[in-house]
Design goal:
Blueprint (H helix, E strand, L loop, with lengths): L1 E3 H7 L3 H36 L3 H29 L1 H18 L6 H29 L5 H9 L1 H20 L2 H21 L4 H7 L5 H9 L10 E3 L17 H31 L4 H29 L1 H23 L6 H27 L4 H15 L1 H14 L4 H21 L13
Helix pairs in contact: 2-3, 2-5, 2-6, 2-7, 2-8, 2-11, 3-4, 3-5, 3-15, 3-16, 4-5, 4-8, 5-6, 5-15, 6-12, 6-14, 7-8, 7-12, 11-12, 11-14, 11-15, 11-16, 11-17, 12-13, 12-14, 13-14, 13-17, 16-17
């Protein structure tokens, strides 16, 4: 008799293994977010010490996102071929080493190259983490679980913003990258030892895999699945990577890609340039980093709130409301920053509101994407949308640097943010939430 994996995952209590999975993946994304955003916290120092302009530094800021644009689809393909656990573990260790090496950079060229290399690892983590969570969690809490994972990005940024000033003051900017990279190097072996593979991936790779009964027994010991004759799942039959462009999913893939591009452009535009914008307006570095801290702190709150919203009304409807709020928050923040003199408390408040909407949008997009694809192409589909979407942060890094070197650059910066949040609305409206395509289209 065949045991249906989907039914077991849906009906059984979470148990220790799935809780461990959530903890390990959340830690992974926190470290990922810490290392990605570290360049924003040291940028004002690099501009002063190296005597470079904001547009010069934009090359280094965008380099990690170029790497992520390559790493996300590549990592998704690796995860679909060799396993989510293997792809995540290798990616974390890889970007940890690359981030530590940034401390050795002596000029913009070296900094940019090392950030690009690290970006390959950054990009490969999220599509595989999303797929692994989606394939282990029951539908009743799947959106919440993905949300708990994605909030690691603002949590990592919040942690980076809170410690970077002390690290820079005591040991120089290099210490920030050494600390962030060390976290990845330490976490990699822990993931290899304790992170479980996706049972649906193991089933697809080999229906008679001896690993699958052992894994299911560990996850659900009360069911006695170690002696199960065979396993099945409704999610994998007939699926292939070409399914992300099948007729029933073509507009989903296009819409998700457009929405990811626009959201990531705006989110990382804020995360990477806000400390530099605030210091260029005369605010001290400590105040600028406090603003970054609140941007990420309230991003965490926004992500949790959006998780609840999308679970009740659906990701598509929830995201449209969040996007309208993001547009309003961006306009308000632009008006506050152009006020003379700038009120620091009001800047912090408006950054908090903006972070709440923009981080919440990321959560909703990953939840929407995870439900749009079957197991065989889930990592590939999410990786494709998120990978092409990483072109958004590249554009925001380059355009932000150019705009901020211009007179009235902050006005142009926020105009770009509002424009692309409108583009994200268009992308989300193209997405139909979920059912798998008919077998004939797969």
């Amino acid at each position: 008799m065949s045991t249906n994996i989907d039914e077991v995952i849906e009906r059984e209590p979470l148990g220790r293994l799935r809780l461990l999975l959530l903890i390990l993946i959340s830690l992974t994304i926190i470290v990922d977010g810490f290392d990605i955003q570290m360049i924003a916290f040291v940028s004002p120092v690099l501009i002063e010490q190296w005597g470079v302009t904001k547009s010069d530094l934009a090359i280094a800021v965008s380099a990690a996102f170029v790497g992520m644009a390559v790493g996300a689809p590549l990592g998704g393909w690796i995860g679909d071929k060799w396993g989510r656990r293997n792809a995540i573990t290798a990616s974390v260790f890889f970007f940890g080493i690359a981030t530590m090496a940034v401390a050795l950079a002596g000029n913009l060229t070296e900094l940019s190259l090392l950030r690009f290399i690290g970006g390959l690892g950054f990009g490969a983590v999220l599509p595989n983490a999303t797929a692994l969570i989606a394939e282990w969690m029951p539908s009743t809490i799947r959106s919440y679980a993905i949300s708990m994972m994605i909030v690691g990005v603002p949590v990592g940024g919040m942690f980076g913003a809170s410690v970077s000033h002390s690290l820079i003051s005591a040991f120089g900017w290099e210490s920030c990258f050494l600390a962030g990279g060390a976290l990845g190097v330490i976490l990699g072996p822990l993931l290899w030892a304790f992170l479980p593979e996706s049972p649906k991936f193991l089933l697809r790779r080999s229906p008679s895999s001896p690993e699958l009964p052992k894994l299911m027994q560990r996850a659900f010991p009360a069911r006695g699945l170690g002696d199960a004759g065979s396993f099945s799942t409704e999610d994998v039959v007939g699926a292939s990577r070409s399914a992300i462009f099948a007729p029933s999913r073509r507009m989903v893939t296009i819409g998700l890609t457009v929405a990811f591009f626009a959201n990531l452009l705006v989110f990382y535009g804020f995360a990477n340039w806000m400390p530099t914008i605030l210091t260029s307006k005369g605010l001290p570095l400590e105040v600028a980093l406090r603003g970054a801290l609140y941007f990420n702190l309230f991003g965490l709150a926004g992500a949790v709130a959006v998780a609840a919203i999308v679970s009740k009304v659906g990701a598509r409807k929830g995201l449209l409301g969040v996007l309208v709020g993001g547009i309003a928050a961006s306009i308000l923040l632009a008006l506050v920053i152009e006020t003379q003199p700038i009120p620091p408390q009001l800047v912090t408040l408006t950054l908090a509101v903006a972070g709440m909407f923009l981080a919440g949008l990321q959560v909703g997009l990953y939840a929407l994407a995870a439900g749009a694809y079957p197991t065989d192409c889930r990592s590939t589909g999410v990786g494709f949308a998120a990978g092409v979407g990483r072109l958004g942060p590249i554009l925001s890094a380059v355009a932000g640097g150019i705009f901020l070197d211009m007179k009235g650059g902050s006005v142009w910066f926020f105009s770009l943010a509002v424009l692309f949040l409108i583009v994200a609305i268009v992308g989300v409206t193209l997405v139909r939430e979920g059912a798998p395509a008919p077998l004939a289209e797969r």
